[in-house]
Amino acid sequence: MPSADLAAARRELTADCSRCAALCCVLPAFAASADFAVDKPAGTPCLNLLTDDRCGMHDQLRERGFPGCVVFDCLGAGQRLTRSTFAGRSWRDDPATAREMAATFPVMRQLTELLWHLTEARTLTTDPAVGALLDRVEQLTRSPAAELARADVGALRSEAGELLGQVSERARADVPGRARDRRGADLMGAALRGASLRGASLRGAYLIGADLRGADLRRADLLGADLRSADLRGADLTGALFLTQPQLTAATGDAATRLPAALARPAHWAASRLEQRRRR
């Protein structure tokens, strides 16, 4: 599947807040931290949420202490629940709807993440097991709320994880000079500037704050890698496997960072460059 087709296939796996009932601004809890300026209990609307379900300071979230909101992406779970599962109803309508949405939103978010990765996997292999699991997960997202709430997502994730691992091994098998695998490695703050990580498995690796400037991450498996505050300026992620937009948004990069064709350069990367110039 060409990159343009992959991007099109993922269109419904991209958050569209205009078609959602602001679920991520209401249902999750968050604590005052570097990511959020205030505490918010689960099920309580954020103090910045307007009555029309828009954020009152969407274009200033980072500057005003809410970078965690910018990084979060439901991968389309919000609009699927709002428009399909609940047929346009909102948590504002009645307490029962609010409870059902609270129970199903985390489930749908995990399912859309599985769809994101399985859609990519289908471009990398002809294994019919990938298409079969993709169809099963897609069908489950269309289930009634009660069925969604009972779904054994853990079993699905385990099944998908094993299958995606097999796809990854085959996709990376012929990488020239393939780097050694660092799956689940603690690389927080690691000095990896210019490192050759080409074709390596970095699944679940902790790369928080790692210096990856100019690193070669071509065809590396980044499924579940924690890239918060990782410095990807000038890094090459061409063909990186199972990378999501939220992972990129959590990192820092620049115009020289090379990305997989189906992913977008985060808008705040340009702002980061301007800030760096000011500090100099």
TrEMBL record:
InterPro entries attached to this UniProt entry: 5peptide_repeat, Pentapeptide-BTB/POZ_domain
SUPFAM superfamilies, per database record: Pentapeptide repeat-like
Pfam families: Pentapeptide
Protein name: Pentapeptide repeat-containing protein
Organism of provenance: Modestobacter versicolor
